[in-house]
Amino acid sequence: MTQPLAYRMRPRNLSEVIGQQHLVGKGKIIERMVSAKMLSSMILYGPPGTGKTSIASAIAGSTKYAFRMLNAATDTKKDLQVVAEEARMSGTVILLLDEVHRLDKTKQDFLLPHLENGRIILIGATTENPYISINPAIRSRAQIFEVKPLTEENIHHALIQALADDERGLGQYDVELDEMALVHLSRATNGDLRSALNSLELAVKSTPPNTDGKISISLAIIEECVQLKSMSHDKNGDAHYDVISALQKSIRGSDVNAALHYLGRLVEAGDMLIICRRLMVIAYEDIGLGNPAAAARTVTAVQAAEKLGFPEARIPLANAVVDLCLSPKSNSSYTALDAAIADIRSGNTGDIPDHLKDSHYQGAKALNRGVDYQYPHATEQGWLSQQYLPDKIKKARYYEPKHTGKYEQALASRYEEINRLNKQ
């Protein structure tokens, strides 16, 4: 059976790796390890089709070590034993272990001594964040490298290479690829080179040649053959949390276009719960007293979205995102509370003043509870000066108002007036 084009075009050495120059370029970490013949185990993590397996096979090709591939989820301890025996008999083996985050304890315990003595050089591949998903015992014995999504230019270059390669690629076919088709194929797979190459091969092999023997690949043909990759993501994956983080930071930074983009990704993923929860957090954490009405409108939008469901839910959610983005921002209230909590946790509290203590029981007066308390509502201005904080921290000032919105500006004026009267 003929291997897929993406498999055949795997790099044979580091110089053939597409992209990832921050790792395999001249003078970069993996290139240095190969040049010095000082390979160590590593974990490569990043999106599918971006070159994790390619880097592993290129390392093996550059070093001439035996290269074996297993899957941590589906292959057994016995499969690992076969690799270990090969390493014992013939020397070092490079083991590419796909889905390394799913390595169970039995397989891990078997692998660890072989990693320690260097007989097996583990190259773990995963789409999950290894700092979250991989057992510390494995993580501590491997260097961690992030594999970046390939650029449109990277994909374009690899497709041209595949069309020209007579030995491994499609060079034996007389292909005429429309420029717009090439651009579309470079973009539509969103950095997944494997998908781009296999879509190209399908287009070439399924299109009959014309009378001149040429296989003409148009944009329409490529659109039929390429499997469009959605920018949505696994709800449990590391990328999901990156999108949530990007949404909040874009709203905090008042970039309405970026915020709508990340909202769109979450809408495409269909994750109503996390969108609604995150928008309410943002409303109170980032907008806060800068525009309290926006927080109330966000709660209303969330309630509407939950009742409507997708696809209509996107409408109130978009309203909320634009509103929050363009609202004045203030985190003064919760940072003030955090400052107060920090004092409490450090033991900086003190006893509650007697005049504030509960006096609604017999004998309270004898204990001086509630005595000398002054009732603010009994005054014309609704305020009077008396001590509320414990003696130990009576001068503490936690709340520092911001002046980003009219509402908090009014609060700040009242706050400063009260502080001034207190000093008098």
UniProtKB/TrEMBL annotation:
UniProt entry tagged with the keyword Hydrolase: no
ATP-binding is among the record's keywords: yes
Taxonomy, superkingdom: Bacteria
TM spans (from-to): none
One Gene Ontology biological process: DNA synthesis involved in DNA repair
Molecular function GO terms recorded: ATP binding; ATP hydrolysis activity; DNA binding; enzyme activator activity; single-stranded DNA helicase activity
Similarity comment: family membership: Belongs to the AAA ATPase family. RarA/MGS1/WRNIP1 subfamily.
PANTHER family cross-referenced by the UniProt entry: ATPASE WRNIP1 (PTHR13779:SF7), WERNER HELICASE-INTERACTING PROTEIN 1 FAMILY MEMBER (PTHR13779)
Protein name, as recorded: Replication-associated recombination protein A
Organism: Vagococcus coleopterorum
